[in-house]
């Protein structure tokens, strides 16, 4: 994040420009902002910022200045929902900010408009999505996409049997396979940890209790100031983790680390993308469609399996860290569906 962009993180960016005129003060603010911004969020915001600026300039509106006019934002929604001017579309692809010609998915349009709203709010301007014509245009674009057959794509939930299939099950697994087994079981058994939480998990966050572990969750997507929650790493997951930690041989640092080609255990943590790739690689090796699975499969799989086994949804949410029933109840109900006796009335 560049120093020139720093005012955008303040409540009132215009006032912040005066408070951080000096290079030393701005450098200190830069460190705080960089440490306080999740890496995934920072990458996504950077990509959305590049795209919006490119579209704005290529469309002939000049250099974007806040606040962005409502009619321009509505044009952004309409262009990407109904189809861009072919010359603009081709220029965006040629510039590298757009992968291919054609409409954007409504989920991508919504995410980029969410970035525009964040950009406004963080500079002291009201969000263009807080009521009014821009929000209405986006709402209608979502309805149009749904009527055209758009459905959000979700990775397939990895249930208990699927997780078992993903494990190496070899008599003499390699260090990387031992790590990957431990990582898969850790992510699933601790409540379906997000892939970023798995990648950022550290040995210091573990507490050994009677041969098993308690994991202190720390920072999560919904708890950016840190969580005081603890979750169990028990049973088979504890055994797999103990085997991996025995190879790591360290008392601090990342739990899940690189294994070098010569077999040495590195000191750097894995990236969150590597967590997803491990799941996909194991799925492919087991004869499953790797594109159907990802890091989120372990999270949704935990909730779905808990419903399948008749576990209390609130107990599952306590481990997963879900804050909203709305986001979790669908997975839980899907797992419990075949146990619903009302679905077997014709069998009586």
UniProtKB/TrEMBL annotation:
Q: Indicate the transmembrane segments per the record.
A: none
Single Gene Ontology BP term? chromosome segregation
List each copy of the Tyr recombinase domain by range: 153-344
- According to the lineage, what is the superkingdom? Bacteria
PROSITE patterns for the chain: TYR_RECOMBINASE (PS51898)
* InterPro entries attached to this UniProt entry: DNA_brk_join_enz, Integrase-like_cat_sf, Integrase_catalytic, Integrase_recombinase_N, Tyrosine_recombinase_XerCD
Q: Which Pfam families match?
A: Phage_integrase
Q: Name one GO molecular function term.
A: DNA binding
Keywords on record: Chromosome partition, DNA integration, DNA recombination, DNA-binding
**SUPFAM superfamilies listed in its UniProt record:** DNA breaking-rejoining enzymes, lambda integrase-like, N-terminal domain
List, alphabetically, the PANTHER family matched: PHAGE INTEGRASE-RELATED, TYROSINE RECOMBINASE XERC
What is this protein called in UniProt?
Answer: Tyrosine recombinase XerC
- Please report the organism this UniProt entry assigns to the protein: Methylobacterium hispanicum
- Give the taxonomic lineage as stored in the record: Bacteria, Pseudomonadati, Pseudomonadota, Alphaproteobacteria, Hyphomicrobiales
